[in-house]
Structure formats: structure tokens, C-alpha cells
Write a structure and sequence with these properties.
Blueprint (H helix, E strand, L loop, with lengths): L1 H7 L3 H13 L2 H29 L2 H18 L15 H13 L3 H13 L2 H30 L2 H20 L1
Length: 174
Amino acid sequence: MSSVALAEIGDKTQLLTLLLVARFGKPFLILLAITLATLVNHYFAALIGELVNQFLNPQMMRWMVAMGFLAMAIWVLFPDRDDGEIRGGHPFWTSLMVFFLAEIGDKTQIATVLLGAHYQHLTWVVLGSTLGIVLANAPMLWFGARLQPYLTSGWGRRLSALLFATLGVVTLIV
């Protein structure tokens, strides 16, 4: 749980969580969507980790997991880039789909693959990684709910537009 929560700090999905709550309000509904999206995404990630472990001898697996964790240590030093904008739709389904897609190939998903390969306890790896994601994103739910009234006002919409424009330019440049 703690390794996934640490990998999530400063991650693009934290910004996504903030934007989802600021856009839709309804932090509890978005929390449910994030939890479900993470459970499904990390289930498959941990399953892949377990399957990889079955085809490699213990020594090779130990080296691969160690190298994976060392790579993760370097990866978390670099900030993520944001790849898009939140569109309309039902808050739950939009949040679920956008968060699920944002987690594909993310540091926390890779960490879950490694944890699944190392520990071979699918249920506990998935529950722990999901709890780590939820705990790391909980502050963003709170901040997003506080910002939501301002982001619906005229200046708030302009600020949101500026934020999205900045993210779009950064995405093109990076």
C-alpha cells in the first residue's frame, strides 16, 4: 500500500482527481468511481505480475523485481505530464473511465505488476494498491470540492480554461 501511495504522490491522476471534483462536484461519487477503476485496473496488473512469476525461475524473478523497483525509484523523481481534458457526461461513468485509462501504464500500475510478481497474493496486492491510490487522492477530493464553487463562476471558468490550455501546450511540447 505505501509503495503505491508514494508512487501516486505528484502523479497526473492526483491532478485528474482534483479536476474531476472541481468539474462535477460529488466527491463521494468520484471516490467510488476511482476506487472501482483502480480495483479493476490493478487486478489485471497484479494478475500479470503473478503470471510473469510463473514463467521465470526464482533467481531471475528476484532480479527482475529488484530492477523494476529500482527503475520505479528513478521514475517517481520525474513529474508526469497530463494528457487531456475532462469532457461532459455522467460524473460516475466519466470519472471511472477517465481514471481507469489514466492508470494504464502509470507508475502505480507498474508498481502493482511488480508487487503481484513479488508477493503472489493477488487479493492483498490489489486491495493494498487500491487503498494506496484512494489515500493519496483523498486530499484532492477535498481540495476539488472546495474549489468547485469558484470554478463555476466566470473567473473560475477562465482559470480552468487557462489551466487546460497550459496543460495542452505542455503536452504538445513534452
